[in-house]
Amino acid sequence: AIRSKNEKLAELNLNLVEKDNAIFSLRGKILELNNILSLSEEKQLTQQSQIAELSQSLNLLKEEKTTTQEESTASIKEMKMRSTETLKQVAFLTEEIGALKNEIILLNAALEYSEQTLLTKELKIEVLGERLNKALTSKVFELQKYRSEFFGKLQLILGDRKDIKIVGDRFIFESELLFNSASANLQSAGMEKLKQIGLTLMDTTQDIPADIDWIIQVEGHTDKRSIKTVQYPSNWELSTARANSVLKLLLDLGFAPHRLSAAGYGEFYPLSDGDSDEDLQQNRRIELKLTSR
């Protein structure tokens, strides 16, 4: 009987072990199912999140579509308004072009008339110019007669002097006759000779008719040797001062101021390009010229 009980007890223990194993196996399956369930819940949450994002994107697209439609409608309205305004401007410009064409026609007619008038005036001016040239030529020849008379008288006064020359339409004084070196003050001897010439010139000019506008030009010239003093910083100042000294003497003789002019040309209009003493002496000079304005 004890053996039988032991066998049953062993059998019960074996069943108990099997049941424990079965329970352990079931627990493993339960754990596995729980894991599977957890994964399913996470996946479900992910899908729900994706669905929410898609819904939000869809709503944004709907809003953008609505905005685009509104902007398109506004643009179409604006384009229609601009088109209407453009048509108005085109109509206005068409009218303006028509008016301008009419003005051009009138201007062309006026221009044609002006050209005809201008041709007539140019013809008159040409005729007047010819008459004026003839009159001026006549006056020049008449002045030439008095100039020749003046030079003839001078030739008698000067004789064979080499320091005073008649060249063309002017006569030339060498500076040594009138001035000391680097000075614009007239020397006594030169002043007396200049007075003789001035009085002869005045006597001649008194016979010139009033309608001939004559003038006596006094020109001062130096040689190319430079000068630099407080009174005469360059040959410009020296030549101008010498010309003015001669002009003042002519004024003292009684010449009217409006019949005289003076200018200094420095060393820039030489009679000779050489460097010898003779060349330099020729270039230092005062020139007088009786001419018309």
What's the SSE blueprint?
Layout: H1 2-158, E1 164-167, E2 170-174, H2 175-178, H3 188-205, E3 214-221, H4 235-253, E4 260-264, H5 277-283, E5 285-292
Parallel strand pairs: 3-4
Antiparallel strand pairs: 1-2, 2-5, 3-5
Helix pairs in contact: 1-3, 3-4
Description:
Helix content is 70%, strand content 10%. With 293 residues, the chain is α+β, with helices and mostly antiparallel strands. The protein has two domains: 65-145; 161-292, 2-Layer Sandwich (60s Ribosomal Protein L30, Chain: A). It has a five-stranded mixed beta sheet. Helix 3 (188-205) crosses helix 4. It is elongated, with a radius of gyration of 61 Å. The relative contact order is 0.07. The model has no long low-confidence stretch (mean pLDDT 81).
